[in-house]
């Protein structure tokens, strides 16, 4: 055994105490949270997920719900969170929902998100013809708000 190997073995046994892994901590040092120790419920800042809340929702109810949510958006975080929730479903949002989202993006002055709304639509539709129909339906609003498409901003990419 070389002297270097012996040195490695000797230093491996002596590690700083602040670098413990969770599996290396002795059970007596692991403490339970105070809320659990006293039988009180622990408070969380995150929202509880209710998976069955919108199971029986129709497309019209979905559209009305998201139109209302986009109409009340006050900051960029809310806008992007609502867009993530809206595009997470296995459907393409209606033109009314998209126009409400575009107006919300303009209200909070977030141009990049407005451009990405159209990118999201392009990713969600089944074919290029559906995307063109959405563009035609939203053309007036797009011109009014001054929102360019990614294809217009970067013509060489695809």
UniProtKB/TrEMBL annotation:
Oligomeric and partner information: Component of the cytochrome c oxidase (complex IV, CIV), a multisubunit enzyme composed of a catalytic core of 3 subunits and several supernumerary subunits.
GO molecular function, one term: metal ion binding
Organism: Aspergillus puulaauensis
CDD domains to which the protein is assigned, alphabetical: Cyt_c_Oxidase_Va (cd00923)
A Pfam family annotated for this UniProt entry: COX5A
Membrane topology label: Peripheral membrane protein
Domain of life: Eukaryota
Chain's role: Component of the cytochrome c oxidase, the last enzyme in the mitochondrial electron transport chain which drives oxidative phosphorylation. The respiratory chain contains 3 multisubunit complexes succinate dehydrogenase (complex II, CII), ubiquinol-cytochrome c oxidoreductase (cytochrome b-c1 complex, complex III, CIII) and cytochrome c oxidase (complex IV, CIV), that cooperate to transfer electrons derived from NADH and succinate to molecular oxygen, creating an electrochemical gradient over the inner membrane that drives transmembrane transport and the ATP synthase.
Protein name: Cytochrome c oxidase subunit 6, mitochondrial
UniProt family annotation: Belongs to the cytochrome c oxidase subunit 5A family.
GO cellular component: mitochondrial inner membrane; respiratory chain complex IV
Pathway given in the UniProt record: Energy metabolism; oxidative phosphorylation
Coiled coil region boundaries: 124-151
Keyword line: Coiled coil, Heme, Iron, Membrane, Metal-binding, Mitochondrion, Mitochondrion inner membrane, Transit peptide
GO terms, biological process: mitochondrial electron transport, cytochrome c to oxygen
Subcellular location per the Swiss-Prot or TrEMBL entry: Mitochondrion inner membrane
């Amino acid at each position: 055994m070389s002297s270097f190997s012996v040195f490695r073995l000797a230093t491996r046994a002596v590690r700083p105490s602040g670098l413990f892994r969770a599996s290396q901590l002795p059970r007596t040092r692991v403490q339970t949270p105070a809320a659990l120790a006293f039988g009180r419920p622990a408070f969380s800042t995150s929202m509880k997920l209710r998976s069955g809340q919108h199971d029986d929702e129709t497309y019209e109810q979905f559209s009305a719900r998201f139109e209302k949510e986009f109409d009340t958006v006050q900051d960029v975080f809310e806008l992007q969170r609502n867009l993530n929730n809206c595009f997470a479903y296995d459907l393409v949002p209606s033109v009314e929902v998209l126009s409400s989202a575009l107006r919300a993006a303009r209200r909070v002055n977030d141009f990049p998100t407005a451009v990405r709304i159209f990118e999201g639509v392009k990713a969600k539709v089944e074919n290029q013809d559906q995307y063109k129909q959405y563009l035609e339906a939203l053309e007036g609003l797009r011109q009014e708000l001054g929102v360019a498409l990614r294809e217009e901003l970067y013509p060489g990419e695809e």
